[in-house]
Structure formats: C-alpha cells, structure tokens
Amino acid sequence: MEFEPVLLRHLGVPGIQHLETYQAQGGYQGLRRALELTPEQVVQLVKDSGLRGRGGAGFPTGVKWGFIPKNHPGPIYLCVNADESEPGTFNNRILMEGDPHQVLEGTIISAYAIRASVAYIYLRYEYGRAYRILQRAIQELYDHGFLGRNILGKAGFNLDIYLHRGAGAYICGEETGLIESLEGKRAWPRIKPPFPAVQGLFHKPTIVNNVETLACVKHIIERGPDWFRSIGIPPDPNNPRDMGSFGPKLYCLSGHVNRPGCFELPLGITARELIEKYGGGVWKGRQVKAIIPGGLSMGFLTAQELDTPLDFNGPIKAGCLGLGTAAVIVLDDQTSMIDVLYNSCRFFAHESCGQCTPCREGTAWMAKILARIRRGEGYLDDLDILLEIANGIGIMPGTTICGLADGAAWPVKTAITKFRAEFEDYIRNSRARLHPVREPIRSH
Amino acid sequence: MPVLSEDLRQAIENYTHRYATRQAALLPALHLIQDRFRCVPAAAIEELADLLDLHPAQVYDTLSFYGFFRDAEHPLGKFRVWVCRSLPCMLRGGEDLLDGLCRYLHVEPGQTTPDGSFTLEYAECLGACELAPCLLVNDECHGPLTLEAARQLLDQLRQQGGQHGI
Ligand SMILES: Cc1cc2nc3c(=O)[nH]c(=O)nc-3n(C[C@H](O)[C@H](O)[C@H](O)COP(=O)(O)O)c2cc1C
Ligand code: SF4
Ligand code: FES
C-alpha cells in the first residue's frame, strides 16, 4: 500500500495559513468530532492509537494525559513544546510555518481532552516567521469562535492560547526547564517526581507535548486509532514493555545529502532508504561514513548499520540513545570524526544549564579534551578518560537531573567505540608531527 | 525620568494578564525592553522588578541565564546576525561562513561593528538545517548561503539602513 502523507499534505496549498482555506480543505473537522465526545473518550482514542511523543522521549501520549489527577478543580495547563533546538531537527518549524492551523487544531483538541483552559506555545525565539504566522492564525481563531469562551457553542469549553517566546537556550526544550522558563525563571529542570502532569506550571497539573505530537492527535480523532495503528511497526514480541511505533513521522534529513529536507514517512523506514530514496543519496558521489539517527544527542550509526529501522527501537538496538527526534544527519566519508565529536561536545558544554555538577563539569571537560586532541595534543589515554566521563553523566547512570547529559554522553560513547581506530590514528600521527623523537612525559 | 515609558509599562502590564504570576511576564517584558533599547539598561531592571513585584536580583538572575540579553555597555547593532555553527551547518560550511563574516565585518563573534550596523554572533542550531549553512538576521532565517551571498545580504541591509529588521 502506498503511504499517503497526512501531516504535510497541505503544505504549499496557497493560503493554507488562513482559517478560511484551511476549513475549505476539511480543517477543524477533527475538533468538531472531538467536541461530540467526552474528554475521556478523546483520551481513550489517543491511548488506543498508540501515539508516542515526537519530542524525543517517545512516551505514550494518552498514558501521560491519564496521569492528570481525576476531578482536579483546575486550572490545568497545556504547554506546546515548540522550542525545537536539537541539532538537526526542524519539523516543528515546517509544521508551524506551513500549516499553522493543523497545529492549533491539535492543540485545541488536546486541551479539550485534558480539560486545560490555557495553552501556552513555548516557541524558540529564532522562529520569528512561525511566531508571526501563528499570531495571525490565533487571532483568526478568536475572531471566529474557535478560542475564548464556549468554543463552537460547546458550553463550558473555554480555552486561551498564548504564544510565549524563548530567549535562545536549548534547555528550555526539556519539559520542566520549559516550565521554569515560562514562569520567568532561569530554565533549570526540576527534579521529578512530581511530574508535571501532577504538579507543573504554577504548581498546577500540566501536560507538555511536542508540536508534531499534537498535530498527530488531530488526525487520530479524525481518522480513528485503527488508521493510526495501520502505519508503522507493531510492538516487538520479545520486549513486553514495547508499545510499538505507530503512525506517520516527520523525518528531518540534513548534512551531506543531495536533498536535505523534511519527509513524512511511516515510522520504521530504514536510514538507507531515507537517504537514498528521499535524500537523493550522499552528495558529491561520496559514501556514508556515519549517520546520526535522531538529533545530535542520539549518537552515531556506522555505514554498516544503515539498515537500522528508524522506529523507537531500532537505533537503541544499534547502540544509540534512541530515535530522538528522528532527525537524521549524514556524514560523508571525507568527514573527520574528531571534528564532528568536537562540535558535539562544544554544543552540550555550551547548553548545559549548570545545576548538576557531573553535567556542568563533564560536558566542559569533554569539550576541552576534544579541543586538545583536535589541535594535535591528545594522548591515547584521553579516549578512555572521555569514555569514563561519558559513562558517568546522565539520568541513566543516575547522576543528573535531566537528559541533556545523556545526550552529551551518547555521541562520545558511540563515536569512540565505533570509530576508535580513527581517533587513535589521529592522536598518534599528530603526536608524531609535534614530537618526532619520542612521546613527551606527561605533566599531569 | 523613568526609563520605561508609559506605553512600555502598559504593554508589559498587558502581558501579566496571561499568567498566574506576575513573574511569568518577565521574559516577554525583557524582549519588549531589548527591542526598544537594543539592550536592557540597568535602570530598567529596577523598574521592571518594581512593576512585576520582584527583587531586582530575581530579574537579573533570569536575564543573565539567557545569553540573549545585552547590558548597556554592549548594546545590539541595528541588525543582529546569528551564524549557525552546529553540526548540520558545520558539515556544509557553517564555520567558514562565520569565519568569513568575522573577517568581512572586522569583528569577533559577540561584537558590534563600530558604525552600529551589525552585531555578529554564533548560534547553535537554528532549526533550519535543510537550509545549511544558514544565518538569522534578527529573527528571520536565510540559507543556504555562500560567503559571497552572505556578504551581499549584509551590504543590502546596511544600505537599507534606517529601519529595524528586514
Ligand atoms: C535537554 C533536552 C531538550 C529537549 N528539547 C526538546 C524540544 O526542543 N522539543 C520537544 O518537544 N521536546 C524536547 N525535549 C523532550 C521534552 O522533555 C519532553 O519529553 C517532550 O516535550 C514531551 O512531548 P512529547 O511527549 O509530545 O514528545 C527535550 C528533552 C531534553 C532532556
Ligand atoms: S543534566 Fe545538565 S542540563 Fe540537565 S539539569 Fe543537570 S546540569 Fe542542567
Ligand atoms: S545546524 Fe544550523 S540550522 Fe541546524
């Protein structure tokens, strides 16, 4: 069966950013359908669909919504995570700029389902174009009774949507960092529990969802959970905890490919197919050296691992942190892994919020060591030191508050284990050039 | 004379209605202030604290967390140009673009040209990696750009001069 895109279906339709055109294309039917159901029924449909969050962690959306305390007097908040800062990732931007009402429809349906009366769209500052497009679209919705009080005549369904612009910090994408930032504080992620669904923004129950997740909700309500489950990969029978990888996914493709871009495909397509069939192959007629399967935090796959399916499990089986944001970055065979890993470490050192010592110090030292290796002053022992640091920081080893540190560690672990010979050669050869006679005596 | 004009105070006050606490209006308020002054003057911090029922240290704490806001000694130029240096851009020449523009404008990242036209900065992933290598002028993205095309873009902006943004 030929896969038919839904999330990107209306991209490029002239005027689709306007309510009138969007409605003429069948827009807001999902919302009307949702309003015929109870909020509990909407939550159940999303649970049945198996939708997992698109923001990086892959947590089942309906299950998360179910954590909101029953009969809570409110207010309950919905935060739309539009901070999108994971290097390689740009699908939220494409959705918001290209089809803003689709995102807003998903937001309104989700707010209805969780009984939220206010939704904040936390939008990274850099998305100025998306900001202005969404601002206009939200105004249209107020003007036409889709926002405000008793929405579309549904007594008691009230919702305000506010745009909230960030100020250029990656950590604001972490859901509790986002909440702190929204509250006007520095974006220091919170210790969990309590989870935001119980105590989040302004101490009230709060759901944080990614833009793409919310866009999926709209289509689940419109087409039903069975349609959603007909796309993607069923649960792994050998893994009782696996919930499957269902639905369409927006894969971002960047780096050394002929046609970088955002492609909507069923979850579980292989990296090879994505690169060759949709990305037009590696640029300049070169070969793949490595790829990153899901945003910089996920680590590396080698050229031999290109048949890894890009579902929620595939990259994990190949030693990566996960599917992440499904942003695939391609490195050609002329690329230096030393340069790449230095770039990665510099990013995470720059973006660590600084509140956990292992992350603050670990990311900074990894970047310093790599800078030293890169300028030709590395020692072979440095590689084991890097691995030791990487193994020691993160939620997985239990030393940090948020996942940024895991994201900093995985590129280091996978690069050094999968490309160790290249690092060793580089260190040996640059040492040889610097000190042609003998290895210097280490001073520390 | 207060630094924050009546209309600016009103605009900030309007933001407070969106949130359960007055503190939550802090980031929008800082954006309004920096848009107006191209920096956040020290006096504005005090006045803003007063307006939002905060201690000035709380305002400063938040402000200083985000590398985004400038003090009065380091105001932004007319155009703030952010050149992306993250991996997807680096793979397609982002670092050379940044380097080349530093040399073209005779500034280091973070500095402003003496004529006050441009503040050049490096950025981490701008969320436009399909347009790599790319840069942001204020909050609008341009890419993919060769160094030559980027220079022309800056020349054009300089000529437009007068108004903010593009
Ligand atoms: C360091 C860090 C940065 C993150 N950045 C983002 C982001 O920019 N956008 C996003 O949706 N999720 C981001 N996340 C994941 C969020 O914490 C959260 O899991 C997600 O927004 C939940 O939405 P979802 O369930 O719809 O995916 C980040 C997580 C970490 C640890
Ligand atoms: S792990 Fe790093 S980024 Fe996350 S809270 Fe700790 S210091 Fe901040
Ligand atoms: S790396 Fe430059 S925009 Fe993403």
Can you describe what's shown?
The complex is a heterodimer of chains A (444) and B (166). Chain A has 444 residues and is of the alpha/beta class. Chain A has three domains: 19-230, NADH-ubiquinone oxidoreductase 51kDa subunit (Rossmann fold); 246-332, Ubiquitin-like (UB roll); 337-433, Up-down Bundle (de novo design (two linked rop proteins)), CATH 1.20.1440. Chain A is 42% helix and 12% strand. Chain A has helices at 19-24, 29-36, 39-49, 61-66, 91-98, 100-114, 128-143, 175-182, 211-223, 225-229, 271-278, 314-317, 337-351, 357-377, 380-392, 404-418, 420-434; strands spanning 77-82, 118-123, 160-165, 206-210, 232-233, 245-246, 248-255, 261-266, 288-292, 301-302, 327-332. In chain A, strand 2 (118-123), helix 7 and strand 3 (160-165) form a beta-alpha-beta unit. The model of chain A has no long low-confidence stretch (mean pLDDT 96). In chain B, strands 2-1-3-4 form a four-stranded mixed sheet, with helices on one face. Chain B has two domains: 6-65, Arc Repressor Mutant, subunit A; 79-163, Glutaredoxin (3-Layer(aba) Sandwich). By secondary structure, chain B is an alpha+beta fold. The interface between A and B is large, with 59 and 43 residues. Iron/sulfur cluster is lined by residues 171, 189, 352-356, 359-360, 400-402, 404-405 of chain A.
